[in-house]
Design a protein that fits this description.
- The structure holds 3 protein chains of 3 kinds.
- By secondary structure, chain B is an alpha+beta fold.
- In chain B, 20% of the residues lie in helices and 27% in strands.
- Chain B contains 20 helices and 51 strands.
- The N and C termini of chain B lie far apart (95 Å).
- Chain C is α/β, with parallel strands linked by helices.
- Chain C has 2 domains: 224 residues, FAD/NAD(P)-binding domain (3-Layer(bba) Sandwich); 150 residues, D-Amino Acid Oxidase, subunit A, domain 2 (D-Amino Acid Oxidase, Chain A, domain 2, 2-Layer Sandwich), CATH 3.30.9.
- Helix content of chain C is 29%, strand content 26%.
- Classes of the chains: A alpha+beta, B alpha+beta, C alpha/beta.
- Chains in contact: A-B, A-C, B-C.
- At the B-C interface, strand 6, helix 3, helix 9, helix 10 and strand 31 of B face helix 1, helix 3, helix 4, helix 6 and strand 12 of C.
- Strand 31 of chain B pairs antiparallel with strand 16 of chain C, so a sheet runs across the interface.
Chain lengths: 95, 985, 416
């Protein structure tokens, strides 16, 4: 597979390490009333879709960016690649 | 007997005669021959035995799809099983053996299977061999295994080199027949980066095997001219002997180039084969089509061949399979074979065409509406029996039967990404479906365009379209006038009503009867049919048999062929040596070898090394007179604890953490608090996974308000860094903090023992105060040593002694260890390796990899109080789950043998002092153990249920695996200096 | 019709006209007591045990395609019981014992072959871990032997002992482990279930669950609604997709595991070898092909195919361990979709919906579990209590922190 890195252009997926669903960015509030349940759902439950999947890849042997890649799990077609930090900020993780 | 069936002409070099041996006999052939063509030229039709019934078999095809003619090529450590004689290029001294035959190819004892074949029908083994029960593994299966299999291996290590390479192109063209050549010329002339790959050693495909003309030139001359032009273009890479084996994601193709297989002796410094990963922007599949056989009674005798293969042998290799060749066909293409044979002077006693309205053949008798219903000849065909249109039968003498059942487009690579082929009724064949691998188009015969003119046009226009996609305007080449015959074919799969078995899959001995039995037993889906009968599972993966099997099944179910199922293919296109897929990363080069900065010095000391991940670390340093490793290790431990020792700890992960929010950040990734760590201090830190399990520990040293140096374990250096980057970029993206791994930038040594300070004092520069007051336990700082060399000094201790770790830029690592050893001479300093390191950490009860095993919590490790409840950190919340917070759960404790001489063994399970020893009574397990030279006995640490409250209890450490049970006493894991006075001295 | 050698002789002498379909193709009925979704190994085994051990009268197995077309038809055929942790030991111990009696039970030769599984160790720490595991196995009633280098050499003299990057320091040998002819397992259970009245309905895809007031009443299918007293789902590879139709999110990700077979060879490898320094395991089928595999492709996928990097990784390991295989040819590769669970262990449990049961999350170890999985799922559905050896396989175990994590990798499915 090839991943079109937003800063570096097309790169072989072998340069990356895969983590999983990009929802892992949405780490719950540790002080919330239901924190333990929220962390359970966050860490363990997955939509695991057959189709478009937003997922985290780490450019381990490259520039060490975490990326959010939108990839189809049936065809492996990649339609979008973003810097995970931008996604995290957009999802309200700036504090 | 010397090349009795050699004809005139052909594309062989008669000036270069080659000697070769097959099955113990000597033959001669020519350069340009394959093993199969040379054997045929010598009048040899028998080349192998079938898998199950050991039926005598000859060559069926002239290509890589060959199911029958498999041989063991070469000898000794280069012995290569299952090589297709059809693609093995002849070289001087070639040696090949027949396989799956004993005692010889001509007289094979296992042919008895053929006599009892009626008992060995499809899937018979699922129905028997069940009684008596122990007989399966002891009697039946060994016999079956011995009989099964094809070729054999030498069991010697393969001596050849293999390589891997990466190529990039605008257009990858797979197959260099008329289609591929037209495409390559079109694309090449417009300057696109083109790779043209073909599995054959001579490009041109069917143009080399047919007698047709392209314009004024013969097909092979036209091809040669095209290849010459392509070779002159810098932007075109021609790859002969290169098989594209698979279509992978995003335009990536795997290809195997056979660099040296055609040479008598491989050059030692060159790879035998190369696995190429080709990154293409567009790809054109121009892989042509494969002819398919017709099934009829005893259609497997040596001499029964595909008609196109007969033409290949006669036209390209000037080798006649026999002096008299009968044709059996359902289409016009078969007639072309007759014409070519007659032109070469080979006798064609008859053309048998199943079509009643078949066109006449010049120079041969046409038997229209006739079918072959039987064949004769034990080791080679002697005659065929034909049922004529009027119902009469006739026996015709011949040495070969050329069979054509039509053509199957070579859709293999179009299926590699799960695309399904579509049925084309006109061709009675599957053609590529619409779901192709991204970037791939298909042209020519592979796309169902079977005439030469269509192939050329499809190749040229396909290239224009593919490049157009990329924004390049290409002009299609001018196409020569050539053959453009329409499809004229009557779908015909197998002859009904023959007396004997009719083979569908030749190699695996699957017959029409087997397909019928599968149907009778409800194994009707393609997958069931295949798996139950083994149809298509041989080394040719059903290239010549799958369609036939499908057609027979369709007939039985009364459904159409596309309703019955589709053939689907998976990589690789043809089998690939395992060594090729492995490349150079084998043996000693399986993984990179990382050497520490003191490696050369340690080698000079005669150190014994051990693998720690990819690192090589000194395990111990034997001295003269020491005959057992324990002597060396005990001495290193005792000497360190008594005076001073030096150990290379460079392999620990090091991460530089800088920025205004560095402390805030570390507070989030460590379970314990770091926000208030003063500058100049080090703190032990524990990292949890988000699920609350402890996964790594180390230290963080605060060199400045905004600068920390974090260490991790050797094993987790990469993972900890990755996780910290995740936290930084994805969880807290606006913290002002930057990370970089500096593991390889700093050489780091532990200097441990009561004389550590005295030793270091001789190394550090005069203005550096390392007194206990000036540089107390857990102090850190940036210093200079050896006269101005910048260094980092940490007063931390893994050994439990007064100890420091000193780091210098890696390039000074070798010099530093030498300086330390020299300075330590007066203290009788000892270098110590990982064994002594391990002994001392067990004596101190420090957790390491065996304890941080991915299932243990801070609580288990006795570090429960370290997990701060006052802050948010990774793993904090989920560590409080019920299953992880049982106060009476596993706890890290120490163990001493009750009888001092007894060994404590890591991996032993703990049982109460009396009662049953079983999984149900398991109390925990010992994780690490060693002999403690300080205590004079074996000791261990491990996890015990409610361990903190069981000090002094006697337990049994059960090791039934090695037949021992040892009585142990539960003690504190801190065997040495539990109060930590030495550290602070 | 009972299968036997005598029967074969009789049939051979009478033109093989007497062989009956191994299973029927019945039309679906309007209602069953129990409907099993998924005609793979586990689903068919569940149906077989429901019919044979729990006397459940009306059972149907619904299969989207053809039975045995999923992972039971696409694996590396290994069976073993070499587990470390409490929650797993008794289950796999039972499963291996059931394999040992399978053929006589089913009257079908699935070629259960206890050829021995050898897990190699290359470091002292691996040996410590192997010792802990081996002891756990013995204490749980399974078999294990710890071999030193010479012990390994005696079994497999052609491994790379001389030129290895990671020298072989020994191995943990599990003699009762081995291989089974995988397709035959599906067919044997199908035939056995069919003979006991189970309706096996192929080409019948479940498109939804009918749930009213928190109770599952049946399934919508491409062949119409089928009512059911209870519905059990055993659809490895599709678990998330199917359970989503019931509104459930699972602790599962889908990944592809590639596997490989070589051209047929005369006997090379008698048992199963697992490399300890890389991702590679290998055995040889009775037909002669080397069957081997390695790591998963790492990314979430439902495409039953993999990519080159993992193929190369597997072969690098393979040739590093057995250099004599360099000239043997890789014949075919394929990919199967694995339900990778969050701790590497499976689920056999009720769901929050009454009458709906779930069996899945087998990662790439589901094949060896087939008999016990079928029995335990049948037990759960028939009695509404978990089988005693499968009590740990709860869907809510992560909520309570009772993970069963053999590899210690945590909630990272692709590392299990």
């Amino acid at each position: 597979m090839m991943i079109d890195h937003p800063l570096l252009g097309l790169r072989d997926a072998q340069e990356f390490t895969y983590l999983g669903d990009a929802s892992l960015i949405d780490r719950p509030d540790w002080q919330a009333e239901d924190a333990q349940d929220a962390f359970h759902d966050y860490l363990y439950l997955r939509d695991n879709p057959a189709g478009a999947h937003r997922e985290l890849w780490f450019h381990e042997t490259g520039d060490r960016s975490w990326l959010v890649v939108t990839r189809n799990t049936l065809t492996h077609e990649i339609t979008k690649v973003e810097l995970a930090r931008d996604v995290a900020r957009a999802r309200g993780r700036s504090k | 007997m010397n090349q009795v069936n050699r004809l005139t002409g052909g594309q062989i070099n008669r000036a270069k005669e080659l000697n070769f041996r097959f099955d113990g006999r000597s033959f001669k052939g020519f350069e340009g021959d394959t093993l199969a063509s040379a054997l045929l030229a010598n009048g040899e039709r028998l080349m192998g035995r079938s898998f199950k019934y050991h039926r005598p078999r000859g060559v069926l095809t002239a290509g890589s799809e060959e199911p029958n003619a498999l041989v063991e090529l070469r000898q000794g450590n280069r012995q290569e099983p299952n090589t297709r004689a059809t693609v093995a290029e002849l070289f001087e001294g070639l040696e090949a053996k027949a396989q799956n035959a004993w005692p010889s190819l001509r007289f094979d004892a296992m042919a008895v299977n053929d006599r009892i074949s009626n008992f060995l029908t499809a899937g018979f083994y699922y129905k028997t061999f069940m009684w008596p029960k122990p007989f399966w593994e002891k009697v039946y299966e060994p016999i079956i295994r011995k009989a099964a299999g094809l070729g054999s291996i030498s069991f010697e290590d393969d001596p050849d080199l293999y390589d891997k390479g990466f190529l990039h192109c605008d257009l990858l063209i797979i197959g260099a027949g008329p289609t591929g050549l037209a495409a390559a010329l079109t694309a090449g002339r417009c300057g696109a980066r083109v790779i043209l790959a073909d599995e054959d050693f001579r490009m041109g495909g069917r143009l080399n095997a047919e007698t047709l003309a392209l314009g004024d030139a013969s097909g092979s001359d036209w091809a040669a001219e095209a290849i010459a032009e392509l070779a002159s273009l810098d932007n075109v890479r021609l790859m002969t002997r290169t098989t594209v084996i698979g279509a992978f994601d995003h335009g990536i193709y795997g290809a195997v180039e056979r660099v040296q297989d055609h040479l008598p002796q491989a050059q030692a410094d060159k790879p035998r084969q190369i696995l190429w990963r080709i990154y293409s922007r567009r790809a054109m599949l121009c892989a042509g089509a494969m002819e398919r056989p017709i099934a009829f009674a005893d259609n497997d005798r040596p001499g029964v061949m595909l008609a196109s293969a007969v033409r290949s042998y006669v036209n390209r290799w000037a080798a006649a399979p026999a002096q008299e060749i009968v044709i059996f066909t359902n289409n016009d293409d078969g007639h072309r074979t007759a014409a070519d044979l007659i032109a070469k002077g080979v006798k064609v006693p008859a053309v048998i065409d199943v079509r009643a309205d078949a066109p006449a053949v010049a120079g041969a008798e046409l038997l229209a509406g006739a079918e072959v219903i039987g064949t004769e000849g034990r080791l080679g065909l002697t005659s065929v029996t034909v049922r004529l249109a009027n119902g009469q039968t006739r026996k015709i003498k011949c040495g070969s039967l050329a069979v054509s059942g039509g053509w199957n487009p070579n859709v293999h690579l179009t299926c590699h990404q799960r695309g399904r082929p579509h049925w084309n009724a006109e061709l009675a064949a599957f053609v590529p479906g619409p779901e192709l691998p991204s970037g791939m188009t298909v042209a020519g015969a592979a796309n169902g365009q079977l005439s030469t003119a269509q192939a050329l046009a499809g190749g040229a226009s396909g290239a224009v379209a593919a490049l157009g996609d990329l924004g390049t305007t290409a002009k299609a080449i001018d196409l020569p006038q050539t053959e453009d015959a329409p499809i004229a074919l009557k779908p015909f799969w197998h002859v009904q009503g023959g007396k004997s078995r009719a083979w569908v899959d030749l190699q695996n001995d699957v017959t029409v009867k087997d397909v019928k039995l599968a149907h009778q037993e409800n194994f009707v889906s393609v997958e069931h049919l295949k798996r139950y009968t083994t149809l298509g599972m041989a080394t040719d993966q059903g290239k010549t048999s799958n369609m036939l099997g499908l057609a027979v099944m369709a007939e039985l179910t009364g459904k159409s062929i596309p309703e019955t199922g589709t053939t689907i293919f998976r990589p690789p296109y043809t089998p690939v040596p395992m060594g090729t897929m492995a490349g150079r990363a084998t043996g000693k080069h399986f993984h990179p070898t990382r050497k520490t900065p003191s490696h050369h010095w340690a080698e000079e000391q005669g150190a014994v090394f051990t693998e720690v991940g990819d690192w090589l670390r000194a395990q111990w340093f034997p001295r003269q007179g020491e005959t057992h490793w324990r002597q060396s290790v005990d001495r290193e431990v005792l000497q360190t604890r008594k005076s001073v020792g030096v150990c290379d700890v460079t392999t620990l992960g090091k991460i530089d953490v800088q920025g205004k929010d560095a402390a805030t950040f570390l507070n989030k990734v460590y379970a314990n608090a770091f926000a208030k760590l003063p500058v100049g201090k080090v703190r032990y830190g524990l990292m949890l996974r988000e699920d609350g399990i402890a996964y790594d520990d180390g230290t963080a040293a605060r060199l400045a308000e905004d600068h920390f140096v974090v260490t991790t374990t050797t094993a987790n250096a990469v993972l900890a860094y990755r996780n910290m980057e995740f936290a930084r970029q994805c969880l807290w993206p606006d913290l002002d903090v930057q990370l970089i791994s500096t593991t390889e930038a700093w050489a780091q040594y532990a200097v441990a023992g009561p004389n550590a300070r005295k030793l270091l004092k001789k190394i550090v520069d005069a203005d550096v105060d390392i007194s206990n007051e000036g540089f107390p336990f857990m102090a850190c700082g940036e210093i200079t040593l050896c006269g101005g060399l910048r260094a980092r000094l940490f007063r931390i201790s893994f050994s439990g002694e007064l100890a420091y770790e000193v780091a210098v830029p890696t390039r000074y690592g070798d010099a530093l260890v030498r300086a330390l050893m020299e300075a330590g001479e007066e203290f009788d300093v000892t270098p110590y390796g990982t064994e002594a390191l391990g002994v001392m950490r067990i004596e101190k009860g420090h957790a390491a990899g065996n304890e941080l095993n991915g299932t243990t919590t801070a609580l288990n490790l006795g570090l429960g109080r370290m997990v701060s409840k006052k802050k948010d950190c990774i793993g904090n919340t989920l560590s409080e789950r019920k299953g992880l917070s049982d106060a009476a759960g596993l706890r890290l404790v120490g163990f001493r043998p009750v009888k001092a001489q007894d060994p404590v063994t890591a991996g032993a399970h703990l049982m109460r002092a009396s009662g049953e020893i079983s999984a149900d009574t398991d109390q925990g397990y010992i994780t690490s153990a060693c002999f403690s030279p300080n205590l004079g006995c074996s000791i261990g640490i491990g996890f015990l249920k409610d361990g903190a409250n069981r000090m002094g209890e006697k337990l049994r450490a059960a090791n039934p695996l090695e037949g021992s049970t040892v009585e142990v006493e539960v003690v504190s894991a801190h065997f040495i200096d539990p109060e930590g006075e030495r550290l602070r001295a | 019709m009972a299968y036997s050698g005598l029967r074969i002789i009789k049939e051979a002498l009478s033109g093989h006209r007497g062989w009956k379909p191994a299973w029927r193709d019945p039309e679906p009925k309007a209602h069953y007591d129990i409907v099993i979704v998924g005609g793979g190994g586990h689903g068919l085994a569940t149906a077989y045990y429901l019919a044979s051990r729990y006397q459940t009268a009306r059972v149907a197995v619904l299969e989207k395609g053809w039975i045995g077309g999923g992972n039971v038809g696409r694996n590396t055929t290994i069976v073993r019981s070499n587990y470390l942790l409490d929650g797993n030991q008794a289950f796999y111990n039972l499963s291996l014992r059931m394999w040992e009696d399978l053929e006589q039970d089913l009257n079908y030769n699935a070629m259960v072959s206890q050829r021995g599984i050898l897990n190699l160790v290359h470091t002292d720490a691996q040996r410590d871990a192997a010792r802990r595991r081996g002891n756990a196995m013995i204490l749980a009633g399974d078999d294990a032997e710890l071999l030193d280098t010479d012990g390994v050499r005696a079994l497999y003299p052609f491994l790379n002992f001389e030129n290895a990057r990671f020298p072989i320091k020994g191995g943990l040998l599990h003699r009762r482990g081995g291989t089974v002819r995988h397709d035959a397992v599906a067919w044997g259970y199908a035939r056995g279930a069919d003979r006991r009245g189970v309706d096996i309905i192929q080409n019948c895809e479940v498109t939804g669950f009918k749930v009213e007031n928190g109770t599952c009443l049946g399934v919508e299918t491409t062949r119409g609604f089928i009512g059911a007293g209870k519905v059990g789902v055993a659809v490895a590879g599709s678990s998330s997709r199917v359970m989503q139709m019931a509104g459930l999110r699972l602790p599962i990700e889908s990944h592809v595991l590639q596997a490989f077979v070589s051209e047929g060879l005369k006997p090379v490898i008698p048992g199963v070898i697992t490399y300890g320094a890389g991702h590679f395991y290998c055995s040889q089928s009775d037909k002669g092909g080397l069957v081997f595999g390695g790591d998963i492709d790492m990314y979430n996928t439902y495409a039953q195919r993999g990519n080159l990097p993992v193929v190369e990784d597997v072969l690098e390991s393979g040739i590093s361990l057995i250099p004599a295989l360099g000239r043997v040819r890789l014949l075919r590769s394929w990919g199967g979709i694995m339900d990778m669970s969050m701790d590497g262990s499976p689920f056999i449990d009720r769901t929050p919906i009454d009458g709906l049961y779930f069996n899945g999350g087998w990662c790439y170890g589901g094949f060896k579990a087939t008999p016990a999985s079928g029995l335990c799922f049948a037990h759960l559905m028939a009695t509404d209590t978990p089988h005693e050896v499968a009590q740990a396989y709860r869907l809510d175990r992560f909520r309570s922190g009772h993970m069963i994590d053999e590899k210690g990798q945590g909630a990272q499915p692709n590392l299990h």
